Amino acid sequence: MTYTIESLPPVSEMMRDCGLEPKKQLGQNFLFDLNLTGRIARSVPNIAQMPVVEVGPGPGGLTRALLMAGTPRLIVIEKDKTTAPILTRIADSASGRMEIVFGDALQVDTAQFDLTDYAICSNLPYNVGTELFIHWLHKMAGQTDGHGIQSLTLMFQREVAQRIVARPGDKQYGRLGVLTSLIADAHILFDVPSTAFVPRPKVESAIVQVTPNMDKIQRIGDIRRISAMTAKLFGQRRKMIRGIIPNVDWEQFGLTGMERAEELSPEKFAELAAHILV
Questions:
Q1: Where would I find the beta strands (DSSP E) of 86-223?
Q2: What is the structure's pLDDT at 2?
Q3: What is the model's pTM?
């Protein structure tokens, strides 16, 4: 039988037919709620004109929503090959708009897909979400011509989402907030209750949208050095910075050295990284 995306059986039924279960070791929590997956997909800016890369599609709940929202091209990157029967079935119903790549998203080079501009939308696996996010921020920072990732629409644990949008003075302010604010504009779109997932996680989730800011990117400097500086100082966030990095004339940066990482603005991190190698 030939299906369209709209006429495919429910995700839960397709999983049952394939004997597919969420894998705890891969951080899998599947989202079945069609209203939520549709809302996430429609949140992707310019989706009807924008190719989308989805990481960790699992049984394809969000995948189907992205196709139904009108993306002209969808590339899914999945580490778990047991999802192949379901993803192939979805691809066969997508009129040539969907490509499947099995592999580790941190190792897959998106340059191979010949994409000028694209969006990333994903219900990220909990165990690699932060690492992937920092990886994409680094890619954004290198987009000095404005081409490449145009938006990230991502689901995180709510605690991680709050860290991404945090500013100095916020309790959640840390490395993610520094890196994000130096490269992009970010905000939380909406919360996702734990009851929406199978299996139900112990934490609440939220959808974060991050868009590159070209003015910021043009003046950021070396993102690798800034990233290293944030890791160094926030890695011992309760210590004074002079105790973490000794033998620095902090006065030249308008500091005493008695500050802690949480007291430094993103711009100050960039300034320090430009002059201090850690």
A1: 98-102, 117-123, 148-157, 184-192, 197-198, 205-212
A2: 60
A3: 0.92
